[in-house]
Amino acid sequence: MINFINKYIFLRDCTLQKKLIIHFSIIIGFLVITIGLLAYKSAEKVISEDVSSYAIERLQQANKSIDVNLQDADKIMLSVFFDRNIRNYINNSQKSSYEKSSAQLEITRILQGNVYARKDITQLFIVDKNNNLYSSNAGTNLDLLQKEKWFKEFAEKNIGKEIIGTHEETKYIPVFYSGSGKVVTILRKYVDLDKNLYLGTMGIDIDYTIIKNIFEDVDVENYKDILLINDDGTIVYSHDEKAIGKKIDVSLYDQTFKGNYGSYFKTINSKEQLIIYAKSNVSGWKLVQVIPVQKLLVNATGVRNKIFLIGLICLMLSIVFSVGISSNVSNPVKKLIKVMNKVEEGNLEVKLDITSHDEIGQISASFNRMVSEINNLVKKIYEEENFKKQAELRLLQQQINPHFLYNTLDSINWMARIQNASNISSAITALIKLLQVNAQVEKDFIKIGEEVEYVKNYIYIQKFRYGNKFEVIYEIDKGIEDNPVLKLILQPLVENAIKHGLGDVEENGVIKISGKKMDNNIVFWVDDNGPGIDEEKVLKILTSEVKSNENNFNIGIENINRRIKLYYGNSFGLKIYKLLPYGTRAEIIIPLNK
């Protein structure tokens, strides 16, 4: 998988110029597509919002027109409702057949007078509680009217008013007496307000053509896609008149019943639709308009095509520019590779011409410095190898000299014992032990106890030279004596304390050698009570080189510091500083278990 990504995605095997061209093209192509999609989505959103806002406004206008017609019809019915003469006629119609006939004629006259000027009203009627019909339309059949489901249900409901959706008037009025055959009916409970008595049911039929003409006359875009539905989803209006009276699939229009107006997207028959709705304040009916998104976004598609055309042109231009840019970048790299090949062949005298100060120019300058440094290092290594061979020869010789020397001293030691020169014998024994440690060239580490013993032998010999000029105090923790330590790191410090620290002290000199475990480290101190050392002298001691000759090995202070850092790391090493009020301290810190 990683090889696939490196090879085909990061174009591992392509030249830098090809990578730049391809990557530039991919990035710009990605940006063009992204910007195009965002612009298209933005245009789509703006268009949808604009269309939704406009359509809701048009639907609300259509609702107002429907409401005006319903309110006008309801006012006519209310004028009849409050007409005392009609109530008196109905009440008197029960007294005799004459009164009944007279009431029939008078009420019919009044009803016809109320709707005479209204061509949109097909009838105004009253059905009293004694099943007497009073209608402005002579063709109304009472029995058929009372069999209508909506009429019977209203009579059973405990409500004062109801607007019945579109239904066939021809079921209870012959076609000859009916208008378009379809009507919307407003029903009211007819009561005597003075006596609070139920008198019957009154209603008014409004020609469906009025509603139909509203959608054709009012500026409602795509009115053919509009539905007018009541609370239970029954269609009151549709361009397809066969659908009137049928129920919609409420699950497809669920959000329509949750507010007064709004819009939302819904997938219907595998096609995304924008559904817009608005509620009537009078009837409570909902106007619903369904607009296919594909049709809605024709303009957005044009915007999208223009954006992608511009993007394609930008992509082509970017490829042209990327070729030029990549050549400008890759040509200096090619020159660098050519020179590097010469260096690989062994030519360290080459040099790149620097023509710019950009990253490539900086790399070229670094390359020139690197080649020059390598050339110098090669020469230096060659010289050091020659020096190393000579040093190895001297080292082999020096390994022979101590063995020969301490064998000779051992013979002298026995001669001193035979002649009872015990001081000379002890001094020679201490010197032999020193030489034996020096002779172990291949051994870098010894135990701390052995290192301290080496120092004691060295001091024993120095006592012959300096007498009682100084004394030595040892404070070495017993718990650290078996820990390994680089050999010969304490003796040079003691030597430095004797020569430099106590150089001007004639008597009562003290050298204190301490070793303690502190956290995960071991710390050694070599203190003296001399006058103290200044910083300039410390710097001189730490940076001085130690010379060697054929007769002895002297290991200097600077050598100790370098060896400690070399073996243990730069965080460890040697410090020398002045003690207050007087004296000098040399401090060594090494890790506990390394």
Show the helix and strand layout.
Layout: H1 2-9, H2 16-81, H3 84-92, H4 97-115, E1 121-128, E2 133-135, H5 142-147, H6 149-156, E3 161-168, E4 182-192, E5 197-207, H7 208-217, E6 226-229, E7 235-238, E8 261-268, E9 271-279, E10 286-292, H8 293-296, H9 298-344, H10 359-418, H11 422-439, E11 445-447, H12 448-466, E12 470-476, E13 484-486, H13 491-501, E14 509-518, E15 521-528, H14 535-543, H15 557-568, E16 573-578, E17 584-591
Parallel strand pairs: 12-14
Antiparallel strand pairs: 1-2, 1-5, 3-4, 4-5, 6-7, 6-10, 8-9, 9-10, 11-13, 14-15, 15-17, 16-17
Helix pairs in contact: 2-7, 2-9, 3-4, 9-10, 10-11, 11-12
Strand runs, count: 17
Q: What level of helicity do the residues show?
A: 40-55%
**Oligomeric state as shown:** single chain
Q: Output the radius of gyration.
A: 58 Å
| CATH homologous superfamily descriptor of the domain at 82-210 | PAS domain
Give start-end ranges of low-pLDDT stretches: 393-401, 545-555
Mean pLDDT reading = 79
Task: Explain what the structure shows.
By secondary structure, this protein is of the alpha+beta class. Among the domains are: 82-210, Beta-Lactamase; 348-442, no CATH class; 464-591, Histidine kinase-like ATPase, C-terminal domain (Heat Shock Protein 90, 2-Layer Sandwich). It is 52% helix and 20% strand. The chain is built from 15 helices and 17 strands. It has helices at residues 2-9, 16-81, 84-92, 97-115, 142-147, 149-156, 208-217, 293-296, 298-344, 359-418, 422-439, 448-466, 491-501, 535-543, 557-568, and strands at residues 121-128, 133-135, 161-168, 182-192, 197-207, 226-229, 235-238, 261-268, 271-279, 286-292, 445-447, 470-476, 484-486, 509-518, 521-528, 573-578, 584-591. The strands form 4 sheets. A 5-stranded antiparallel beta sheet has the order 2-1-5-4-3, sandwiched between helices. The radius of gyration is 58 Å and the shape is elongated. Residues 393-401 and 545-555 have low confidence and may be disordered.
